[in-house]
Amino acid sequence: MLPVVALVGRPNVGKSTLFNYLTQTRDALVADYPGLTRDRQYGRVKRGGQRNFFVVDTGGIVETELGIDEQAMRQVRVALEEADLVLFLVDGRDGLNVGDEAIAAHLRRIGKPVLLAVNKLDRPGQTLAAHEFHALGLGEPHPLSASHALGIDDLLDAVRDKLPAEDPGDSADAAPGIHVAVVGRPNVGKSTLVNRMLGEERVVVFDQPGTTRDSVYIPFERQGKPYTLIDTAGIRRRGRIAETIEKFSVIKAMQAIEKAHVVVYIIDAREGVTDQDATLLGMVLEIGRGLIVGLNKWDGLAHDHKEEIRRQIDLKLGFVDFAEKYFISALHGTGVGNLFDAVEGVHAASMLDMSTARLTRLLQDVVAAHQPPLVRGRRIKLKYAHQGGSNPPTIVIHGNQTDEIPGSYKRYLGNAFREALDLHGTPVRLEFKGGENPYQGRRNPLTERQIRKRRRLIKHAKK
């Protein structure tokens, strides 16, 4: 499982800014106003290093006359419980204060590994201000500036050194065959579908949201082929998460998606496609897993209702148009058998081996059909492509001015590669590599004649 790092600290110390930088998103609201973050934000770190991890942004911990405010700690406590490492962020401009000391005392009591980071140290001379935080007794303070991306690489190295060692015998890794995670909101029929696919009652099914509290890994065989089904806890909007135990579901489901080869996302057809479904599918897309969308409880719906659900799918789920959609009934078994064939096809597409020669030919054909745009009068040139990984299929494209490629053209390339390679059910990840300009930073020396001409022009301009 990917480890979890919790960001904690007083309000307005820069936790959300650091979260957004690490995850390369804008999921956490950022403003120069304390207490803006009320709920936890979950993200996957995409910056530096080979070992990834999840990071959790928490609301600011408020210290009162009676100690740490219990209401503020309620949302932080869950993040601390599920974290493998706590990243304690303090404000280097404000200096050490009683609030930091109260939080440090609490962190020492919970017994989790803690890293101390001193934020808002924008200039090199300010790093000396970090030394006063030695008084907190949490080890060496790490100076940084989240808003200016200073010192973060050193902090990430320290974080990865502190994370628990990867366990090669992890139960999820050791489980055989294709890993299929069944994901969705609470009470949409995930456990019923798992039992139907297994042909036996292996997980608890009850007509009440929240019956499944943890991700359950179930190895089994079908027609001689090994699989591992992962039944995940339902994820609901953070504003509706009341019980402490249910708050663990979010990170458990994210870890299950990370471990899966294929995700079967279940939507309750009677309720339709909700905004929360779109958010969770965006999480699957970000992690880059093969995707199958199952519209459950389809039987018994009126014709008009079915047509409305189809319109909702086109309207709200256009960003995952590559995913295969199936209309099923987990309770009665209608359409469930087709899911196994779909899982096989999506897994094969996500693990496809693509040769450099084939990808380069495809790139040339795609570029010939629709040229990249001009940038400052110069045409972007895409030279060749090769495979950079699988699950999801990753294509690395080399050229010049690749940093200037607009998002619309990147989407065009991704869709063209997916169609040409018949990659149904899996996202395609594109990476762009630009060659270094050998003349960048070099200035041609002026000749004596050019120098005289320049002086004449300057003299003329001054008149």
UniProtKB/TrEMBL annotation:
Instruction: Give the PROSITE patterns listed for this entry.
Output: G_ENGA (PS51712)
- Source domain of life is Bacteria
Q: Name one Pfam family in it.
A: MMR_HSR1
The UniProt record gives the binding positions of GTP 1 as: 9-16, 57-61, 119-122
TM segment ranges: none
Query: One biological-process term from Gene Ontology?
Result: ribosome biogenesis
SUPFAM superfamilies noted in UniProt = P-loop containing nucleoside triphosphate hydrolases (SSF52540)
What the entry lists under InterPro entries is as follows: AAA+_ATPase, G_ENGA, GTP-bd, GTPase_Der, KH_dom-like, KH_dom-like_a/b, P-loop_NTPase, Small_GTP-bd
Where, by residue number, does GTP 2 bind? 184-191, 231-235, 296-299
Q: Which HAMAP family match?
A: GTPase_Der
Which protein family is named in the record? Belongs to the TRAFAC class TrmE-Era-EngA-EngB-Septin-like GTPase superfamily. EngA (Der) GTPase family.
For this entry, the protein name equals: GTPase Der
Q: Which gene encodes it?
A: der
